[in-house]
Write a structure and sequence with these properties.
The protein has 261 residues and is α/β, with parallel strands linked by helices. Helices cover 37% and strands 20% of the residues. The chain has a domain at 56-224: Lambda Exonuclease, Chain A (Alpha-Beta Complex). It has helices at 4-24, 41-46, 57-81, 129-136, 148-161, 200-218, 245-248; strands at 31-32, 86-93, 98-111, 116-127, 178-186, 192-197. It is globular.
Amino acid sequence: MIDIEQIYNEYLTDKSNKNRQERYADNEKWYHASNAGRCYKIHWYSTRGTTQDVPSLKQNRIFEMGNIIHESFQKALIFKFGDKVFNEQEITIPRLNVRGFIDSVLPEFFLEQLGITATLIYDIKSMNSFSWKFKYGLVKNRKAQSGLAEIQLGTYALGLSESKSSNVLLPFNVVEPIIMNLVNYKKDDSQLKIELAQRKCMIQAEQYWEEAKLFMQQHTMKEPMPVTTVGCPRLSWECNYCSYAGTCNSPLYKKSTGDDN
């Protein structure tokens, strides 16, 4: 019999490796915008080419589900707006050493209800029922959110806003205001929530990256990286989801003992 599970796992691993090579080869010096708001040591490891932990087979499938949802939304925008939409748009912020990819951008978009022309950006997040409950469930079940998605969106908006002054070439004109949209998709039953991020996210993003850059300047190549220090980690739970956990040896990391298949 054909081992379809093994074939799928091999396919996902190959796809992930090719995507990483395409996006990040020869760009190791940049901090990744997708890590906005996270532990500063992530940038320390990534810019030094540290080998990441190998994701479990289950994690690979979870990542792929997120990719499928992303691609579906991006195709829908192309279906509606054609070549007016820019998916996976690369942005850089040279002064902060940040590089990333925006899920979708609709530049110079006229909002009839407001009577203005703006730049619309979309970041798509897939969530499980556990995370959804804490964000959108009964009020008594809700918990304060990390704000990582908003800081990431703010990073993208900051990159677009500064593109002209930074001499960063883009395939479109950036028109202010930049309206940041967070698309949250619940994987369990396909519920959908769209949120508008506030402009303060750009300020928070700038502050975070300035702090991260300062941290990196204080920890040179020759110095050993402390296990824990200010901003490492920034959130108590993130060590358990970090791709450098095996290298870092953080005392906050709890190795999973569950089913990885």
